Protein 1
Amino acid sequence: MTASRSARGRRAATQAGPLARVKVDVDAADQLVYKISCTACTVRSGKPWSAYRPGEDNGYLAAMDRWTFHLVERHPDSEAPCLAFLEEAQQRLHERREAGTTANE
Ligand SMILES: [Zn+2]
């Protein structure tokens, strides 16, 4: 569990690029929780901007999608491997909206 957790964290950090700080936690229900925070942005409370999503690969994708949109909006000059999947991320966002109240999000 611990090994795969850090491997997942490294994979996510590589995808998210140099501006991101990635943490993979385990919540009370033993679920993986992905947290991607921005090293350049703070929100009003003074904490770093972050995306926080629970749940294995779904959580990974959801957090990474949020992060990808953050990069596009706030750091359009930055480069990260996840930006290659922007189109897929937008497609997933669209599908989640289409699914409406039945979605987990
Ligand atoms: Zn940022």
Note: The longest helix spans residues 56-74.
Protein 2
Amino acid sequence: MIDHCPECGEPGTMLIYGLPGPQLSRAVDAGRVRLGGCMIEPGQPDWYCPAGHRWSDEDLDGQQRLLDEILAECNAPPTAHAGASVVEWRVGEPALTLVTPGAPDEVAPFEPSTPVGEYAFVVSPDERYVALFIDSGHRTHGFELFEVRPEFRHIGGLPAMPGSGHPPVFSPDSRWLVGFVADGYRVRGTDQHFTDLFDKRSGARVTLDWASLRALRVPGGELHRVDVGVEMPVSAYPHEYTEWDTEDAVRFTAGDVAVLRMPWGQKVAVSLPPSAPVTGDRPVPAP
Ligand SMILES: [Zn+2]
């Protein structure tokens, strides 16, 4: 296998042709392989290097073995590390398993309250709690909360909620678990949908509640939920707001102050527990 560039000696990345399935897409997202195009034709290069050189390689078996290894690594089920222990969710089991070297496995039974599509673990900074974030893949999401020490057990969570979420974030002192999720287009103070008010000739402005902030006191405390909104003209077209997302949009400046990054870049600090709706301030886009 010619896995280094014949011209410059840099390590190569495999080029894969054809339409990618979900397993291959994960390897592409992780930067482990690259798509060469959907057409499969003779004479296409098998590798490329960071300098952009491309070359062919006759060792198809070697390439297939390497691709199988990469796919297995990129599609391994998520696990979480807490101290010397590893938390696993074994396929089909209604429990998490805590594996500690030199000690018997411990199990924490639970029933997921959200249908399981994709999932991810989030470990608290003190490694005492683990949240199992579940996205159904059908615009609902939730999480289950577990205590790792002193006893491995399920202690609560967030039942299935609308919206395609991102995993919640623990505060630095491990006392809060905060989720920030785009979950609809509500008009604050009414039961109307923002999209129903659309009038391109109107100068009216309302507060569009497009997301929720949820803060759970850890362990097992009350769940506080508030709307997150912004004033918008009812003449706004859907493309101005339907792509708003909250990926990686929660930070902490202190144990009980969460900073939310709005899709337009503004940062809004919220003291926990949140006691009132959060309102951002969006500059009027240039015409
Ligand atoms: Zn090269």
Note: The mean pLDDT is 93.
